[in-house]
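Researcher: Sequence recovery benchmark, item below. Answer with residues only.
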């Protein structure tokens, strides 16, 4: 039986998986969610012997039910291939008393590759299935990692264009260089004079602008999204939690019935929501530990039930988490309202108009699987230094935030359950923050000098994704104010 998708703001709006992937955001501004979370149909013993590609198929076939077996397997094989630098795609490595799920072995050395390597293939297949004749315009805001991963995925893909907005002063030097040197005539990168939340809001407003949609349609274009608001981004992320469980069993670290906790450094809430979906599918995940940086809106939400974005926006060493409006949280809110689209819509309208909303005590009880905490900048740097000197393992700042929060959770709970930490980026993406945390004497070095020093220090070879941007030409120099975003899009599209 086909699994349909419904909008979080209008449960009567039901579409197939391919339709949800193709449009990205629902017409009413809501996010598409599956009508139910399917249970895994493969045994735990079989899962233990599967490749990453086979695991991904077993997960995705249950969600993307209007894709044929051949279509879905083709998408998976094209996504998870030699562009990843390890055969297992996502290794699980023990360091200290935690297990690190290394999600950064793809072409742009961040976890976004896990979904954005497959999204272009899912989207082109979805366009064919729905006889879409218009050229797809991928419109995306990024806090640093989604942008490059989306650009790499969609560059040179026929029938698509991709436009990425990023906060020009809010990403790491390596992240910026990765984006502004992107090849491909169908790619366009724009730095905005503002923060990620403003970029994300601007993109959402363009999606819901009927006049702009009509102008695009008249010129043969339609918008779609590569952000994690697109269900085609979220579901592929579920697969790596199933794979982590399988790897832990295969390595003799977990028995089949033994549960484990998951810690996720969290910004837009997609990665930890994927872990919740994996849990609901039958993967024995215990606590979902949500790690925030100093922009601790999610920590405050889990503690109080009040979501309030009315606060100072702080630029940190973990820029992919510098977010005050966590878009994917809406999917969780919809669930804990009892899938009440009207209640959810009221809460989201309150967030839009007042910048905050309060959930009921009954809704807060539904969040018992979650634990939230945060790490400050000094704590994050100290964790990077400690892990290097004690374990010889180098963390990027986002993963260090997660490691800090895990330590806080253990101190508070005295819970020794085995725990997997989602390691979301290579330390090579944040060399300045990493190297100066390890030793302040590195502060005077240039960014690419630090790359070479990190290779010496870590013994881990410089990834190809870094080598290729050392001397690459800067192709994208456009900047704009937030209010100019629609005009910039129309300019690129020749409207």
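Model:
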């Amino acid at each position: 039986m086909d699994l349909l998708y419904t909008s979080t703001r209008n449960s009567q709006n039901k579409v197939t998986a391919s339709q949800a992937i193709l449009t990205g955001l629902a017409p009413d501004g809501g996010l598409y969610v599956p009508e139910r979370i399917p249970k895994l149909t493969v045994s735990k013993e079989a899962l233990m012997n599967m490749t990453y590609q086979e695991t991904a198929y077993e997960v995705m076939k249950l969600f993307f039910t209007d894709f044929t077996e051949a279509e879905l397997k083709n998408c998976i094989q094209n996504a998870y291939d030699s562009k990843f630098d390890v055969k297992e795609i996502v290794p699980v490595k023990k360091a200290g008393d935690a297990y690190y799920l290394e999600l950064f072995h793809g072409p742009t050395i961040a976890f976004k590759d896990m979904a954005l390597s497959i999204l272009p293939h899912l989207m082109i297949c979805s366009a064919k299935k729905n006889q879409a004749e218009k050229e797809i315009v991928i419109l995306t805001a990024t806090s640093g990692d989604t942008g490059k991963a989306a650009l790499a995925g969609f560059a040179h893909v026929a029938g698509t264009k991709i436009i990425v907005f990023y906060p020009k002063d809010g990403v790491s030097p390596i992240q910026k260089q990765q984006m502004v040197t992107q090849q491909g005539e169908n790619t366009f990168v724009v730095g905005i004079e503002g923060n990620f939340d403003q970029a994300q809001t601007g993109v959402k407003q363009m999606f819901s602008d009927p006049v702009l949609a009509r102008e695009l349609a008249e010129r043969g274009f339609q918008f779609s999204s590569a952000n994690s608001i697109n269900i085609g981004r979220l579901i592929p992320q579920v697969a790596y939690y199933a794979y982590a469980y399988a790897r832990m069993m295969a390595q003799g670290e977990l028995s089949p019935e033994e549960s484990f906790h998951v810690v996720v450094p969290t910004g837009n809430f997609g990665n930890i929501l994927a872990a919740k979906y994996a849990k609901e599918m039958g993967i024995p995940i215990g606590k979902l530990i949500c790690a925030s940086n100093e922009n601790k809106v999610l920590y405050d939400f889990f503690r109080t039930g009040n979501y309030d974005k009315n606060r100072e926006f702080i630029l940190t060493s973990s820029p992919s988490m510098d977010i005050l409006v966590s878009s994917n949280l809406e999917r969780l809110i919809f669930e804990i309202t009892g899938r009440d689209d009207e209640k959810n819509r009221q809460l989201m309208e309150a967030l839009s108009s007042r910048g905050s909303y309060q959930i009921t005590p009954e809704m807060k009880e539904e969040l018992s699987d979650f634990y939230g905490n945060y790490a400050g900048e000094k704590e994050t740097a100290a964790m990077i230094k400690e892990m290097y000197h004690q374990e010889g393992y180098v963390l990027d700042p986002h993963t260090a935030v997660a490691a800090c929060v895990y330590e806080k959770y253990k101190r508070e709970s005295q819970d020794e359950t085995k725990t997997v930490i989602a390691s979301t980026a290579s330390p090579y993406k944040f060399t300045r923050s990493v190297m100066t945390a390890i030793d302040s004497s590195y502060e005077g070095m240039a960014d690419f000098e630090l790359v070479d020093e990190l290779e010496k220090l870590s013994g881990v070879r410089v990834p190809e994704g870094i080598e290729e941007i050392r001397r690459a030409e800067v192709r994208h120099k456009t900047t704009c104010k937030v209010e100019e975003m629609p005009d910039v899009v129309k300019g690129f599209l020749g409207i």
